[in-house]
Amino acid sequence: MAHSGGQSPIVFVIEDDDDVRASIAGLLKSVGLPAETFTSAEDFLCRERPDGPSCVVIDFTLPSMTGFDAQRQLSDAGVQIPTIFISGYDDQPTIAHAMTSGAVAFLIKPFEDQDLLDAIREALNRDRTMREASPARRTESRRATPGGLQ
C-alpha cells in the first residue's frame, strides 16, 4: 500500500485476542504498513501520538473499555484520529451508532483482509487530509497524553 510524501503512516491495532492482533499486524507488515499493537485501550490512550498520519483499528468489545469509550476519550481530549471498529458481534444499532459517531468502518469478524486494508487506506487518507487542512492539529494531537485522557 503506497503512501504519499511526508512521514510514514502508522496503524494502531487494539485487540485483546492475541491471534487476531498478530494476524492484523502480520497483514499490515505484508503490505508495508507499520503497526503498533496494544492489548487494551488504556495502554493505547497512554501512548503519545506520532506526527505522521495514523489510524486506529480497535476491537469494539474490549474487556475493560469498549472501543466506543476509547474513541470518545480521544475526542474529548481533542485527538482526531480515524477509527475502524472490529467486532465479533453483528449488532446493527451499535454499528449505526459507531458510524454516526465518525467511525471509518465497522467490520464484523471474520472479515476479509482486503476490506480491512481498504478501510485503513481510507482512514489514513482522511487523516492526511485533516493534517494538511490544519497543520496546528499535529501539535494538539501529540499533547493528548495520559493525564489529558483519563
Unreliable runs, pLDDT <50, ≥5 residues? 1-5, 137-150
Taking all Cα atoms into account, the compactness measure Rg is 14 Å
**Rough shape?**
globular
- Structural class label: alpha/beta
- Strand proportion, as a percent range, falls in 15-25%
Order of helices and strands: EHEHEHEHEHHH
Number of helices: 7
Main-sheet strand order equals 2-1-3-4-5
Measured as a percent range, the helix fraction is: 40-55%
Please report the distance between the alpha carbons of the first and last residues. Answer: 34 Å
Let me know the largest β-sheet. 5 strands, parallel
Number of strands: 5
Mean pLDDT: 86
Q: What does this protein look like?
A:
The protein has a 5-stranded parallel β-sheet with strand order 2-1-3-4-5, sandwiched between helices. It is an alpha/beta fold and 150 residues long. It contains 7 helices and 5 strands, in the order βαβαβαβαβααα. The model is unreliable at 1-5 and 137-150 (pLDDT under 50). The chain is 47% helix and 16% strand.
